[in-house]
Amino acid sequence: MILTAVAVLGATSWWHLRQRAVSPDQYHVRGKFGPVVGWPLIPLQVITLPDGRVMSYGTDAKGQQTGQTIYDIWDPTKGFGPESHLTLPNQTGTDIFCSGQLLVPADGAVLLVGGDLTVNGQRNWSSADINYFDFNKTVLKSSGRTMQRPRWYPTVATMASGEVLVVGGKLDPTHYAPIPEIYNPKTGWRTLPGADKNEAYGEPNWNYPRLWLAPNGKIFNVSRLGNTFYLDIEGQGKIEPLKAKLFRGHSYLPSLMYAPGKVLSMRMLGVANDIDLNGPEPVVKTTGWYTPIRFNASATVLADGQVFVSGGGLKNDDASSHILANRLAEIWDPKTGRWNSAAVAGKDRLYHSVALLMQDATVLTGAGGAGAAKASNNLDVEVYYPPYLFKRDGSGQFAERPKIDQAPTVVKWGTAFDVHVQGTTAVSKVHLVQLGSATHAQVYEQRFIGLNFASKPGGILSVSSPDSRNTAPPGYYYLFVFDSEGVPSIGKVIRLDA
């Protein structure tokens, strides 16, 4: 009886904590969520496009699981009304539900690999299909060929060469796909049979494997069990098991690259591991503890390099008791290693929810539902406005933002380029954040890079681009400048390319 009373009291306290709204005088410390607004489908898979729009998909218009019927293109410059959405029919024949997706570095097309397949009326088999979304023509089309292996829940990542790595996923409901494949925009597809390792990309780690291009040119992979590996994609490929170990993780706890060669990985029981890949061997340490009620949380790097985490709950499913869902967002500060309380969301965001940094330095959060368990299907989103967007005087008003008047659209590695900033704004920081995609508690491709710069007369900055393709792989990035108060501009999209 005593234990039951304590449990009820604790749950009740948690319920009040997670509902407590942030007052305007705290916006500059904790940020705020905007209103909950409707969406044409459950955006359980989202990707930012080079023109500033957002592609989302995963369900039909009623929130039922399928990526075979429709997908949506949202234009943030038009607000949130019907005129801001272009909802189109998926005419490829592929159910892109639980596929992998990224921007092809060469042209910004969205590469979509794998997905769901229905066999004899049964869902959740695997597709080998390859599709492309041309953002210039706003057309989703089939590539006319397939991968060597079908994949459901695969991870895709850009390599230093501009090639795309595809790993993980299932072959069918009971078999896995541990052999990686490589896509080269000029020569097509090839497999890496020498990197066939079950521990890295098979049964223990098939569900959207966590991996990043490391400064040494290899691909670093961390499994949910805590094992780590390097993948070398040269020739037939090779897997190198590493000594570095992490605390046990989970398929629905986020990990991301928050700085060059540095990864934050949220593990079980509130443990967060900080991984440094910049030395001869990866170094793992424990950083601050996060609120452990976070299964199915979403994380994204903010424009200032801090890490924003929202949503999740106590259980690993979307039918958790809603009293144990976490509406209180948190921000991890890499400088201190501490987690700080952010704003409180308007809705529970559990399984199939997302969060992703936008071009205006806000965070798109939303979705949830469309799973096997019975739970609310959230055909809606809410935008998070980080603390750096507000005046520091406690007024709760948005700060005036610096503005980039001109910046190049293509930048080479190891060069200086000019950025024109409006007026006489004193610039304190210049950052790059790679455009990303989010699904299933993960953000893919996104990485943060601080840039050196020098001020020149006339509001011109001479900015030094990243030296290495391994630190900043080819592709599309938001360029942000910050004023002396730490307020960011709206990002300019640039492409790193030779």
Tell me the number of structural domains.
2
- CATH topology title of the largest domain: Methylamine Dehydrogenase, Chain H
Which ranges are low-confidence, i.e. pLDDT below 50, for 5 or more consecutive residues? 1-13
The count of helical stretches stands at 3
Radius of gyration: 22 Å
CATH homologous superfamily title of the largest domain: Galactose oxidase/kelch, beta-propeller
Task: For the record, give the distance between the C-alpha atoms at the N and C termini, rounded to a whole number.
Answer: 68 Å
Main beta-sheet strand count, sense and barrel state: 6 strands, antiparallel
Mean pLDDT across the residues is 92
Please bin the fraction of helical residues: under 10%
The percent range for strand residues is: 35-45%
CATH class of the largest domain: Mainly Beta
Structural class by SSE content: mainly beta
Strand order of the largest sheet: 6-5-4-3-37-38
Number of strands: 43
> What would the principal axes of the Cα set say about the shape?
globular
The CATH architecture of the largest domain can be named as 7 Propeller
